[in-house]
Amino acid sequence: MQLVNDSTCEWLNQLPTRINIKTINKNENCEWLIIGAGYTGLSAARKLGELHPNQRIIIVDAQLAGEGASGRNSGYLVDTTLNDGFTSSKELNKYIKKAEIYNLGIEAVKKFVKEYQVDCDWNESGKYFASSKVEDEIILKNFSETLSKLGFRYNLFYKKELKKKLGTNFYNVALYTKGGVLLHPGKLIRAMIDALPKNVELYENSSLLEWKKNKDVIFCKFKNSNITSKKIIFCTNGFLRSLGIKTNYNFPLTLTASMTRSLSDDEFKSIGEPQEWGVLPVRPMGATIRMTKDRKILIRNTAEFLNPFKMIEAELKKRSIKQYIGIKKRFPHLPNDIIESSWSGVVSRTRNSSQIFDQIDDNIFAAGCYNGSGIGVGTLFGEQIAIKASNEHSSEIEVIESRVKPSLLPPEPLLNIGVKARLIYERFKAASDI
Ligand SMILES: Cc1cc2nc3c(=O)[nH]c(=O)nc-3n(C[C@H](O)[C@H](O)[C@H](O)COP(=O)(O)OP(=O)(O)OC[C@H]3O[C@@H](n4cnc5c(N)ncnc54)[C@H](O)[C@@H]3O)c2cc1C
Questions:
Q1: How far is the CA of 1 from the centre of ligand 1 (A)?
Q2: Is the pTM of this model over 0.90?
Q3: CB of 317 within 8 A of CB of 344?
Q4: Is the CB of 126 inside a 6 Å radius of any atom of ligand 1?
Q5: What is the Å distance from ligand 1's center to 39 Cα?
Q6: Is residue 303 within 6 Å of ligand 1 at its C-beta?
Q7: Tell me: the pLDDT tens digits for 269-306?
Q8: 21: pLDDT strictly greater than 80
């Protein structure tokens, strides 16, 4: 099936148009083939290019590189998460492992940004886990105990302080954690495309249709031509399943975000001229909402289990209305037409929120499934899967491989029913904060 993104992502539309887009139009042969050019695939390609400067490396994307989830996310590079089921004290060891991986992810992005002098609006502003429900204080206090044990710095804030810091009196309680970065995901991923080493060839608008392994060769079929490769790394995240990778362990979710125009001077003054901030929800289906450095408000408050291949405009409009309501709840006095753009992207989930980092077969590798932490963990996993596929070792691989592994999903139709029922339940639990 042909993968089609919407073309309305504000982060991407702010970037200069790329030229010299190459598609696959003749048969090719290479040592290394990477499928998917988001944070994972581009980081794998960068690392392979360094490790094997004399080998031919090809990276292919079904659309324009970086214009999947990697260029259309909310831009939180996280050091901690609350909503992944690993916060109770008996799960502390799992949480420690997870936080260790997040930290390595931040370090990987930081190193890239420093080395290539990337301007991606990097702001070490920390983030708020916030709720409008007073009773959610208990969830935050429990979470703060976990954070204390791990040595994270945090503060609890209440309505009055939050009004000052965020410019809205919607939230009653929040736990602010000092770690984590807000950034411009489009600028970051564009820099990763620009940083591809010379021996890496990028082909775009070229969808992998079928693949098979024949003895020592991997044969990949595209629309008008084929690529044969000695080794392959699958980095298609939300589309791993559709390519037959770890099908019993991952499934796609469609997330949608909307962004307002920049607030006018008067509008900005009316909310107290807050500094750039990012809020994550206390309950999984609550809204992620962020004030950007250019005074735009970004909101993401939907997650759906849909066909990931086609973004339908009418569906996007419906989601955009939900995001308009989310913004109005928090900033009632802003004008009704303040949302300027809405877009969707596809991510990948596993049952227990653990990531995929695997050798699937001889010479076949895959990395993906990062929940809400793909900026850092995707960059890390991309680099490290390239090292693993090169039969080399690293301390990062040891940490990654000691994580809890993804757990088995139920078969269809139970999966479909189960995921949809869970989403309805979580939406109900988070209703006030959507
Ligand atoms: C709205 C939204 C908000 C998010 N917010 C955050 C956030 O704040 N922080 C965070 O860390 N993460 C966030 N995420 C998740 C994050 O964007 C992803 O985890 C991350 O982009 C995954 O990177 P990736 O390279 O593995 O996958 P992708 O960026 O999805 O790249 C996979 C690529 O594979 C390509 N592909 C698929 N099938 C084929 C095929 N058959 N042939 C060739 N190519 C193919 C796709 O076109 C795509 O470009 C968000 C995601 C969305 C959609």
A1: 18
A2: yes
A3: no
A4: no
A5: 7
A6: no
A7: 999 999 999 999 999 889 999 999 999 999 999 988 88
A8: yes
Q: Which residue's CA is minimally distant from atom 50 of ligand 1? A: 73
Residue-level pLDDT at 77: 97
To test ligand 1's pocket by mutation, which of 245, 292, 375, 385 has the most ligand atoms within 8 angstroms of CB?
375
Joined together, the tokens standing for residue 393 give: 């070792």
> CA-to-CA distance for 201 and 45, rounded, in angstroms?
9
Residue type, 100: E
Q: Which residues contact 224 (CB under 8 A, 6 or more apart)?
A: 24, 25
Structure tokens belonging to residue 265: 């001077």
Does residue 86 have a pLDDT over 60?
no
Q: Which tokens in the block code for residue 35?
A: 């499928």
Atom of ligand 1 nearest to the CA of 345: 53
Say what angle helices 185-194 and 92-115 make with each other, to 10 degrees. 60
Ligand 1 proximity of 94 Cβ (cutoff 6 Å): no
pLDDT tens profile 322-337? 999 999 999 999 999 9
Give the per-residue pLDDT at 195. Answer: 98
Percentage, residues of the chain above pLDDT 90: 81
pLDDT at 124 over 70: yes
Q: Say if ligand 1 is within 6 A of residue 207 CB.
A: yes
How far away, in angstroms, is 374 Cα from ligand 1 center? 7
